[in-house]
Amino acid sequence: MKIPVNTASHQYEVVIGKNILKSAIESLYERLPKIDKTIVLTDQNVWEAGKDYFSANFPYPFEVFVMPPGEECKSFDNYKEAHSFLIENGCTRKSLIMAFGGGAVGDLTGFVAATYMRGVPFVQIPTTILAHDSAVGGKTAINHPQGKNLIGAFYQPKAVIYDMEFLSTLSEREIRSGMAEVIKHAMISNEKWLKEIMLIDSIANIETDKLASYLKAGIEVKAKIVAEDETEQSVRKYLNFGHTYGHAIEAAAGYGGIAHGEAVVMGIVYALLLSERYGNVSRKFTKSFLQFAYNNGYPFEAVSSYTFDSLEPFLVKDKKVEYGELQFVLLNAIGEPFMQSISLSVCREIDSEYRA
Ligand code: NAD
Ligand code: ZN
């Protein structure tokens, strides 16, 4: 299955399915100008879990650079190490870099590719559920000690090759975290789809066919938005639904304590409470979503230990602060997002409602 992504300046495809790595890579190499060298950037966990399948199905020779796992690979130090690896291995502008991993590997690799020799082509080979979101759309970044994703670039991949074989080694927690972005895509686009998701008993055990159709639907939502607004001047902001408060939780927990998607689900509940006030979302709906999220093991108790005072410094540091007010994505109804400026005092009020 192929989903086109057409931005003003770039066109590429997301190929998604089971056991598609070999055929998708072959057809990509036929399409692209001759590649002189392939370099794979991955992380320890991904390589450990996926190297056998990857090596057996990758039809061309490659060099591999294995990085520290997850968020750790988005450090300045690792960014430098990755560049050193490219230089030492003779990577040129005719080489192709593969981002083989979750959102962290994808973000780091994309930024390395954007900056090495002022830009070399790269391909996303996502291995997490969350990465159905992060691999599409060309946002790349590393972290600064003072904030997440502060250093980055918009840089589109040549293709996204999403072989669902890789998802089989994800932990329940990673599935739960990744499903948060699926929920987000449904919340901002389609009530019927969201209601279907909310009927799932155990999100961590979602059946493969259903997951495939949800990932495809999520990628379609993202591709449509990115096509309209590649650099987040307008509608792309809607993809931050749940992320303003979510990012603050993630930061307060010291990144990793609460997984990205777990924090996003907390942020979605918070945004729904705001949407009751500024939009037409009902309390009944917020409660039913809260129950669904609680039943599925999203960590409300762990998060309750982060007080509003501990979140505030991170809320005001968010990239989405404009003229001193926080910019929230809210919903008029499910599938109808809009932007709303909100003062810190209202945020504090809603936070106490959230905890009640
Ligand atoms: P991740 O890349 O940190 O992966 C989560 C963990 O799972 C890591 O420990 C990783 O090593 C491991 N892992 C990955 N794939 C695996 C597999 N198939 N089997 C076993 N283990 C595996 O996390 P993520 O949730 O995929 O992505 C989060 C990152 O994505 C954050 O850095 C976030 O900022 C970024 N992000 C970027 C965008 C974007 O548009 N660029 C959007 C959303 C999130
Ligand atoms: Zn996210």
From TrEMBL:
It is an enzyme of class 4 (lyase). The keyword ATP-binding does not apply. NAD(+) binds at G103, A104, V105, G106, D107, T127, T128, K139, K148, F166, L167, S168, T169. One of its GO terms (molecular function) is 3-dehydroquinate synthase activity. It comes from the Bacteria. Residues 178-321 form the 3-dehydroquinate synthase C-terminal domain. InterPro entries: Dehydroquinate_synthase, DHQ_synth_AroB, DHQ_synth_fam, DHQS/DOIS_N, DHQS_C. Zn(2+) binds at E181, H243, H260. GO terms for biological process: amino acid biosynthetic process; aromatic amino acid family biosynthetic process; chorismate biosynthetic process. Its cofactor is NAD(+); Co(2+); Zn(2+). Keywords: Amino-acid biosynthesis, Aromatic amino acid biosynthesis, Cobalt, Cytoplasm, Lyase, Metal-binding, NAD, Nucleotide-binding, Zinc. Residues 65-176 form the 3-dehydroquinate synthase N-terminal domain. Binds 1 divalent metal cation per subunit. Can use either Co(2+) or Zn(2+). GO terms for cellular component: cytoplasm. Pathway: Metabolic intermediate biosynthesis; chorismate biosynthesis; chorismate from D-erythrose 4-phosphate and phosphoenolpyruvate: step 2/7. It is found in: Cytoplasm. Its EC number is 4.2.3.4. PANTHER family: 3-DEHYDROQUINATE SYNTHASE, 3-DEHYDROQUINATE SYNTHASE, CHLOROPLASTIC. Belongs to the sugar phosphate cyclases superfamily. Dehydroquinate synthase family. Catalyzes the conversion of 3-deoxy-D-arabino-heptulosonate 7-phosphate (DAHP) to dehydroquinate (DHQ). This is 3-dehydroquinate synthase. It comes from Ureibacillus sinduriensis BLB-1 = JCM 15800. The lineage of its organism: Bacteria, Bacillati, Bacillota, Bacilli, Bacillales.
